[in-house]
Amino acid sequence: MIIFLRCIPPETKKYEIASFINRVLSKCFLYRQSSDILHEDIEILSIQDIDSNTLEKHGLVSIFPKEVGNRVIKKLDGTIFKGKRITVREYFNRSADNDPRNKNPNTAIDFKERRASDRRRKPLMNSWQKNPILVHASHAI
What we know:
- By secondary structure, the protein is an alpha+beta fold.
- 18% of the residues lie in helices and 24% in strands.
- The protein has a five-stranded antiparallel β-sheet. A two-stranded antiparallel sheet has the order 4-5.
């Protein structure tokens, strides 16, 4: 399971996330292994809003088994990390291929947009992309 730490402080290092999660793992009765979260299990994502030049940082942490990941989410969601309240939840990989708004001409899909407005965030640059793609609201479908 991959857990998502939303809006962590910008100066956060991997070892700080590891010690934050390892404190919970050491108290978790489901987790009896001696191994802790390692730096290799953590990824820090940076998202920059091009218009306002603000930077968001998020953390991804691989935790196995899934029961332990669920326990960590329950214990850490809404807690204070480095002076900032964070949201912790399960991370899901989503594919644009599954979005019904990206209609395939070979498939007849009757899809009515129920959203009043587009919820997609405008110009963002993701640090994990090799060649960042800027997504602007004017390009949204």
